[in-house]
Design a protein that fits this description.
Layout: H1 8-21, H2 27-42, H3 48-59, H4 63-75, H5 84-89, H6 93-108, H7 122-131, H8 136-143, H9 145-157, H10 163-171, H11 178-190
Helix pairs in contact: 1-2, 1-7, 1-10, 2-3, 7-8, 9-10, 9-11
Length: 230
C-alpha cells in the first residue's frame, strides 16, 4: 500500500467510516450501510474502493452470519480484540490505570463516551480522534499504533475482509519504523499477559467480562453532517 499525504478532513472521514464498520453488525448498522458507503465515496476516504466492496458484500449477506463472524473474530479472537490496551496489559492492574487516563483524556476534550463501554475500544478511540482538536486524536491513535498494527497483521494473516479497514486506518498515520515493527512482532509472539487481577483502578461497574460482546453506541454522525441512521 502506497502511503500518500492526506488532509485532515480526509483522515477524519476515514476514522468515522472505520469506526462505524468495526461495530457489532446489528440491524441499525446494516440499515446504515448505504449511507456509509455514499459518505465514504463522497469524502474520498482511504481505501474507498475496497471499503465500498466490503459494504456491498455485507449488504448481500445474512445478518446472523455477520454477527457470528464478528463474535468469533473480535470477541473470541485474543489477538484480534478491539480493546487496544488488552494486547499490552491483559487484565493486569496496570490496565485499569491506562483506562482511567483514556477516559480523562476524552473528558478533557469534551467527549463523554457511554459509561458501559471501556475507553480502549477501538471504535470509541476513532470517534475521539475524529472529534478531538487536531492533533490530539491522531496522537492518541499513534500512541496505540502497535496493537492497531497487530490486529491488522492478524486479520491479513487470516485472510479476513476487515483487514482493509485497518489498512485505511494505518494509512492515516505516520509511516511505520523498525522499532514499531519489532514491537508488533513481540506482541504477536507473546500475546497478552496471563495474570488476571481485575481492573479495579478503573472503578466498579466498568469491567467487561471476558468473551462478552461490546455494548453498542449509536452509529455516529459522519464528517460533513451525514446522519447514517436516517
Amino acid at each position: 500500500m502506497r502511503r500518500r499525504s492526506l488532509g485532515l478532513e480526509q483522515r477524519v472521514a476515514t476514522w468515522h467510516v472505520v469506526s462505524a464498520l468495526l461495530r457489532y453488525p446489528d440491524e441499525d448498522l446494516i440499515a446504515a450501510l448505504p449511507a456509509i458507503r455514499e459518505a465514504a465515496i463522497a469524502e474520498r476516504v482511504v481505501e474507498v474502493e475496497s471499503i465500498a466492496k466490503l459494504i456491498d458484500d455485507w449488504s448481500a449477506r445474512d445478518l446472523i452470519d455477520l454477527q457470528t463472524e464478528y463474535v468469533e473474530r473480535f470477541d473470541l479472537g485474543r489477538q484480534s480484540s478491539l480493546y487496544m490496551s488488552w494486547h499490552q496489559y491483559g487484565d493486569r492492574r496496570q490496565r485499569g490505570l491506562v483506562l482511567l487516563k483514556l477516559k480523562r483524556a476524552y473528558q478533557e476534550n469534551d467527549m463523554h463516551p457511554v459509561e458501559d463501554e471501556l475507553p480502549d475500544w477501538l471504535p470509541l478511540m476513532l470517534e475521539f480522534a475524529a472529534f478531538a482538536p487536531d492533533p490530539a486524536g491522531a496522537d492518541l491513535l499513534q500512541k496505540w499504533r502497535a496493537p492497531i498494527e497487530l490486529v491488522r497483521k492478524v486479520l491479513h494473516d487470516q485472510g479476513q475482509p476487515q483487514a482493509v479497514l485497518f489498512d485505511a486506518l494505518s494509512a492515516t498515520l505516520p509511516k511505520m519504523g523498525s522499532n514499531l515493527r519489532e514491537t508488533v512482532e513481540q506482541l504477536l509472539a507473546q500475546g497478552p499477559p496471563d495474570e488476571e487481577v481485575g481492573l479495579e483502578p478503573f472503578g466498579p461497574g466498568n469491567e467487561m467480562p471476558s468473551g462478552q460482546s461490546a455494548p453498542q453506541m449509536p452509529i455516529p454522525t459522519a464528517a460533513g453532517g451525514h446522519d447514517w441512521r436516517s
